[in-house]
Amino acid sequence: MIEARNLCKSYRNGRETVAVLHNLSLELEPGETVAVTGPSGCGKSTLLNLLNGLSRPDAGVLEVFGSTPADDDAWAALRRSRIATLFQDGNLIPTLTVARNLAFRAGLAGRSADGAAALLEALDIAAVAERYPDQLSGGQRQRAALACAFAIEPRLMLADEPTGSLDEATASRVMPLFVEAVRQRGLTALIVTHNPELAGRCDRVLRLHEGGLVPCP
Ligand code: ADP
Ligand code: ADP
């Protein structure tokens, strides 16, 4: 599903070049749910941005769904319909209601929004479907973002600190729903998280350490 070999990524900081990822390798099997942990600044977002094609490795080989996407357009097509990225603050369009956000994302992916009502129901946000993002609580906004991510019917779900903006009680309510929805759909997921409860629900936990991934006992 995902095969990364010896990925390297550095940033220029003034005159200095700082290596963030160094010979990082990763294999994700179809349907596998993997958590990635590590301290702030260790390169977790950098890794996600390589996996969704928003940035390119300096070196190494990255294959998704069996091949290396040829160019920016190929990556953009994957992001529209096969690779969903869920951000900490949710990436909802502020001028659209929840229902329209969902229909818009589904439409971009060439999917029907027929399942939308059921999705909102399952995530317990059907009652706020006609509200705009700034009229939602943090937990509702996060669940709306989840609904949008699932609406594109991706094969790979990437999540960057999905509990980051939630209080503990809300995180405990929303995260089981998230992992359950991922598993029900047979999606492959890579979830960056500091939340032990969320990590514990995944099949494997990896730690990003000195630019590479090591298994976490
Ligand atoms: P994490 O997600 O684990 O907090 P990041 O991947 O965001 O880590 O960042 C890893 C390191 O790379 C940090 O030191 C950060 O300051 C640096 N970095 C990230 N993005 C850039 C960028 N666009 N330009 C320069 N440095 C960056
Ligand atoms: P295009 O230019 O062809 O519209 P984009 O790269 O702008 O392609 O967007 C393609 C898809 O990727 C869209 O569905 C959009 O929602 C999603 N997307 C855009 N920016 C990001 C981002 N920073 N993180 C995750 N997904 C993104």
UniProtKB/TrEMBL annotation:
The organism sits in which domain of life?
Bacteria
Q: Does the keyword Lipid biosynthesis apply?
A: no
* InterPro entries documented for this protein: AAA+_ATPase, ABC_transporter-like_ATP-bd, ABC_transporter-like_CS, ABC_transpr_LolD-like, MacB-like_ATP-bd, P-loop_NTPase
What would you give as a GO molecular function for this chain, any one? Answer: ATP hydrolysis activity
Q: Name one GO cellular component term.
A: plasma membrane
Which PROSITE patterns does the record associate with it? ABC_TRANSPORTER_1, ABC_TRANSPORTER_2
Q: Which Pfam families match?
A: ABC_tran
Annotated ABC transporter domain ranges read 2-214
Cross-referenced Gene3D superfamilies, in alphabetical order?
P-loop containing nucleotide triphosphate hydrolases
Q: What are the UniProt keywords, alphabetically? A: ATP-binding, Nucleotide-binding, Transport
PANTHER family on file: IMPORT ATP-BINDING PROTEIN, TRANSPORTER, PUTATIVE-RELATED
Name assigned to this protein: ABC transporter ATP-binding protein
Record the organism.
Marinobacterium nitratireducens
